[in-house]
Design goal:
heterodimer, A: alpha+beta, Alpha-Beta Plaits, six-stranded antiparallel β-sheet, three-stranded antiparallel β-sheet, 9 strands, B: mainly alpha, 3 helices
Amino acid sequence: MIVRMAKIRVLGPRDLLDSVFKALQELGVLELVEPDPGGPVERMGLTEGQRARHRRFHRILADIEACLDSFGHIPHPAFSGPASREDLARWARLARRLRPQVEHLRATAADLEEEEALLLKYRPFLTTFGRLLKSESTWKHAAAYHVVIAREDGHTVPKLREALREVVGEEFELRSEHLPTGEVALLILITSPVAERVEQMLKNARVQDIPVPSSYGAHSLAEAVPRMLERLEQLAGEIAEIEGRIAELAARHRDELARARDAFIDCLSELDALPAAGATRHAFVVEGWAPVEELPRLCARLEREFAPLVVVEEVCRDGPSAAEAPVVLRNPRLVRPFESLLRLLAPPRYGSVDPTPFVAVFFPLFFGLMVGDVAYGLVMIPLALLLRSRTRPGSVFRAVSEVAGVCAASAIVFGILYGEFLGGMGHEWFGMRPLAFNRETALTVFLVVAVALGFIHVVLGLVLGTVSEWRYHRRHALAKGATAAIIVLAAVLLLGVLGFLPKAAILPGAVMLALCLPLLVVTAGFMGIIEILSTMSNVMSYARLMALGTAGVMLADVANELAGAVGLLILGVVVGLFFHTLNFVITVFSPTIHALRLHYVEFFGKFYDPGGRPFRPFARFDQQLGR
Amino acid sequence: MEFAIIALAAAGAISLPALATAWAQSKIGAAGVASLAEKPEISGTVIILLAIPETMAILGFVVAVLILLQGGG
């Protein structure tokens, strides 16, 4: 159901505004609305001091969040009372001091990791050159060139040797080795007098010498390579040491900083909310929406702390302005998870009907009717429990897991009614007998059940639409009521003609139908007639319950047939499992989508008014997170 | 011969709506993916929109079953 809301006004002396705001934030039950621009009070802006405080809080919060991000896992501590000025000042100092330290450590760790990644990437290359470079030591006063040739140019090494011989005769040495990556590492050693000519030749051939990394303090690659390999050994230790220092800082300060973050977010949200208050020279006024059931608590708190200076008055509870009220859905525990199925749509408008209880009945019913297999239901239960165990209470996935649990139970119940366990295996292997009907053979019965359910669902939607519209649009309500009556009377006539109802029902039914038709035309015009046809097609759309259910059981039988056709027991089990898994995925996914669609299009189309906005109370950060 | 005609009628009843559904879903799917790139939060709505043309195939299936049941026995 949609919780009843009331718009209230809090009035008091201007110097109490901060304290009243703090109390309202702690209560967390009032959604603030800005004062009427045409009213006697002006919208309150922030003073220069408050704006400066806002900027400062933002900076501090950025410091805190930077530290917490570096620490990794961010805790959500329980609220332990409002923070004092001293606390805020201490946290600000702590965050300002910690942030550069932590960022420096993170940056250093990132540099070291980058260096390690680079060295690891080039380790095979360095190892290969290490072997080649040992040759350098045999040539005193020689110039060395270190070159890497791409895999596809590997065949050019003999040509290079020829070219060198033409330029410098025999005064060179060329060594080559294949790298694990497929490239070829070359070391060219030449005597100093001919170095210039060789350099020119390599330049003309666009062969580049590998530069000596400057960070290793070496004059040549021969000196640098061993140092680089040695450095690689050291890096792991250095990274571990820095991570250890960050972990130490996190262990010491993380919880405190998390508390500080919550406190500063609360301070900022208080400052952000201030412009929602209106003020005169000496007084303030705050307006907002609160659930009616929370009003006594709100009034008692403000009276206890501020009476007689601050007063609370109710502006409105029902009536035209209540249409602007935010929406809070409150349903019994068993029904509440189904609220998650409404999140794909905007919330229902305040004052309209909350469809959650109806969804909680019909969604599992349709799902079970389509899936209807004991084995598939039994597989769904552990999956739903697993999802439940891994999700936070109140989260969407927790709600989905609970909906899945109810749907699994429904699939099992319908499986028993159909006598199905992995399709027809229930009849053949376990002697299960259909308690209701056999879906594989009684197709007409299944179709009638599906359409009858659709009829009930659509008529229920029309009745809800009539109730919902009655308050504000009586003409629309009458049109919906007439449509519902015509559909029901048409069904009565049809059943009477077919002999399923006594013939005596036909005449009164026809008379009432004749009375309802003009009422529909008067209230909805000729569009009302089209609405009748549309409603009938809506009812027929529920034939999908039968179609998908039949397709599911047929696919399960196909899986059984394929498994049986294999001949070998183990292979048959594997094939059967594979196809049943495939069918399970299809059977679970498709009915979910179609059960949702039947609700959104056929059912909600008759009454759901999605113009609501969710309730966003002015509350502490931990309350907003539902802690 | 009569059964062959009934079977052909049932095949037509399911295959033509299935082709129409496929065509409609290809259009909705392409537009849905483009919309998802802009607004990932509408994924649920897109899935529902994709399921809407399936009504044709499903009703085609129901009609095919009825043809087979009424005609074939």
